[in-house]
Amino acid sequence: MMTKEKKNWINSLAAQLQVSAMQMPLLKAMPKLELHAHLNGCVRTSTLLDLAVGENSKEKISNTDLESLIRKEDRSLTECFRLFPVIHALTTDHAVVTRITREAIEDFLLDNVVYLELRTTPKCNDLYGMSKRSYVEAVFAGFEAAGVMYKTDCDVQDGHRMHVRLLLSIDRRENAEAAMNTVQLAWDMRDRGVAGVDLSGDPAIGNWETFLPALTLAKELGVPLTLHCGEVSNPKEVREMLALQPRRLGHVCCLEEAEWRALLDSGIPVEICLTSNVRTESVSSMRDHHFAALYNAKHPVVLCTDDPGLFSTSLTLEFAIAATCFGLTNLELLIMGKSAINYTFADDKTKLILHGIFDDALQ
Ligand SMILES: [Zn+2]
Asked: Does ATP-binding show up as a keyword for this record (predicted)?
């Protein structure tokens, strides 16, 4: 469940945003697609606290001010970077991976997300008998526990309200061989709920060319690709990423004029993460966010959360920010959501079901 602290935080942000009391429930009730959410960034504060005081946790973490760091809602960039390794250290075994997956889905369900693409880097950990494949199985166990539909072409089941797909992330700290293994795993598990591959991680780390062979293989196999792009200024990398023609790009915050024009010409849909971009200082302020320019240029965009747990946000809140800062109406937000069905990595049958859900809402 959402903690009391988080509810208060979201309510106070809504007040700051001057979203009317009437509008928040409407935004929440609206069907939504979440296409850019990292599993480890979705972990609830209450779960982190629970895991931090659990058995063996002292061996994993040694921060004396850990509890206040976990409890804090408006974390600074430095605090976010301090929390990342803590989350990583606390989410090591199969049971925890299954738990945080189930809880992440439950939280998106409460936000009326009808289709979710959750992404995560498959991890190996000999200490816990974990391989990349068993890690993915643990995520699937979370899908099962949450009662969602996640397999390709699966029929709508009674009581199952959400379609979920998994994207396997290549972390920029990994080497070429590990990246290749991840693409192979995505291909092997394509009928079991893995819908694509993502490139993510600290943009200052690693050389993008390391991952080109694996990403090229994904393209050859027909595994859909999304890339974290332009989180820091790196025109050469942005140009090369655009040349690869992935199915989607995440962020694209720091683009020079030539790369910006190339992005617009490419028509590649962009996953927009408003709060994340401001909090991580990729964008100087919400008013300066490039979402407005992309939206006004009719470039395909989709609003996403990135790390709702880490940044204390929700998709409803991101919609509220878009409504307040950029003047989008509820109808425009709904139409933007419906358009994004075409940018998902879902099969055609699932897309048709989603179009039906949005058409009902539009009426
Ligand atoms: Zn991300």
From this structure: no
From the candidates 231, 237, 271, 318, give the one annotated as an active-site residue.
Answer: 231
Domain ranges of the chain: 20-43+91-362
* Distance separating alpha carbons of residues 356 and 348, to the nearest angstrom: 12
Tokens of 196: 């694509």
Strand segments, DSSP code E, in 17-142 are 32-38, 113-120
| Intervals of the chain under pLDDT 70 | 1-21, 54-65, 153-155, 157-160
Instruction: Give residue 72's pLDDT.
Output: 80
Establish whether 231 is a catalytic residue: yes
What's residue 71's pLDDT? 81
Q: What is the DSSP string of 137-165?
A: HHHHHHHHHHT-B-STTPPP-TT---EEE
Q: How far is the CA of 160 from the centre of ligand 1 (A)?
A: 27
- Name the CATH superfamily housing domain 20-43+91-362: Metal-dependent hydrolases (3.20.20.140)
